Amino acid sequence: MQREKQIIKVSVVWIITNIVLVIFKAIVWFISNSIAIILDALNNLSDVLSSTVTIIWIKLSSKKPDKEHPYWHGRIEYFSALVIAMIVLIAGLVALKESVLKIIHAEKATYSVYTLIVIVAAIFTKIFLWRYVKKQWERLNSWSLVASGIDAISDSFLSLSTLVAAIISMIWWFSLEWYLWAVISLFIIKSAFEILKKSVNDVIWTRADQELIDKLKNKISSYEWVLWVYDLILHNYGPNNIIAMAHIQVNDEMKAKKIHRLTRAISSGIFTEFGIILTLGIYACNDEWIYWDIQKRLNEIIKKYKNIIQMHGFYVDEKVNSVYFDLIFDFDEKKPEKIVKEIKHEIKKEFPQYEYNVIIDTDFSD
Question: Does the chain have fewer CB atoms within 10 Å around its N or its C terminus?
Fold first, then answer.
């Protein structure tokens, strides 16, 4: 709730500031007859719309879990960034279109000192907004605010281009504003596509941040009795709602009571430090080194296949004469089952007394 209130507060500041800019720019347009100024004002009006969208979507995303959506509603926030990106894209395309038309059909604008003052004020206001929003998006981890911040710095460049054009027009009577607008509108379009790409990635999920992965693995490995950590998977249900799963390998002599205490301690520690709900699976590890020759030979065989990233979870169960291990394949590998069959065939020639049970793992995290 606190995060929601903070994002709404930032969005309200954004809306009020842009409304003030729209009013002043409309006045300047009336005085100067500069289409660039009125388009700039319309761009600010689109910012008001995008921030209103942010508030609506943030309110929706902060709803509590229910029977139909037990994993919260946090992912709705990613759609707000998509909507904002579309608004920014449309604004950039409109600016580009008008720029090209005005270059072809030139129209003279009349600027004054008052015009320059308002434009300068708009530039500094947008830079201030960008710095303010940037600070908040880093603190609140909101991609909607990131989109608004990118829009703010784009607007400041648009206003700067109008200022440069106005000064040139007043001194040399040469209209340059549409050429500058055409160039900067291309940057706005590029920014919109970057926001779209990031938003779409958040919606369909991409590989988790490697720094977070490393921190989580180091934290889990720091607990006594944990020998290795594997298969760490993060499910993102919103900026601050993450559920994680991982496998830990422990000595096969550990009793259920000790494993229970260990997994509880790890899950609690991860939630306290990272706010992440963690579920753990257990792999057994042989205490005896007599199986080292099998594992060593397996590693030698696996090295022949360049698309195998890792083998883990190795365990020999003498009671059922079985060897267990997992293989992680690169996504480029199209026939992992064939390779597994070859590996099992080769290792069985040297250690025929065992059956080999192999799980093909996905490369979810490094």
Answer: N
- Which ranges constitute the DSSP H helices of the chain? 2-32, 35-61, 76-104, 113-140, 143-172, 177-204, 210-221, 256-274, 292-302, 336-350
Q: Phi and psi dihedrals of 226, rounded to 5?
A: -85, 120
Strand partners, 308: 329
Residues 78 and 33 in one domain: yes
Q: Is the CB of residue 366 less than 8 Å from the CB of residue 213?
A: yes
CA distance 270 to 325: 27
Whole-prediction pTM value?
Answer: 0.65
**How far apart (Å, rounded) are the C-alpha atoms in residues 111 and 173?**
10
The alpha carbon dihedral of 272, 274, 276, 281 has a sign of negative
100-148 pLDDT, tens digit each: 887 787 666 666 677 777 778 888 887 887 788 777 766 776 656 666 6
Buried-exposed string 94-120: b where 16+ CB fall within 10 A, e elsewhere: bbbebbeebeeeeeebebeeebbebbe
Name every residue whose Cβ is closer than 8 Å to that of residue 76 and which is 6 or more positions away in sequence. 57, 60, 61, 238
Q: Quick one: tokens of 40?
A: 């700039």
What is the number of alpha carbons within 13 Å of residue 304 lying toward its C-beta? 9
Residue 181's domain spans which residues?
2-204
Residues in CB range of 296: below 8 A, 6 or more apart: none
Among 204, 234, 256, the domain boundary falls at: 204
What CATH number does the domain containing 147 carry? 1.20.1510.10
CA distances to 186, 351, 361 from 338, in Å: 49, 20, 14
Could you give the CA distance from residue 167 to residue 164 in angstroms, rounded to a whole number? Answer: 5
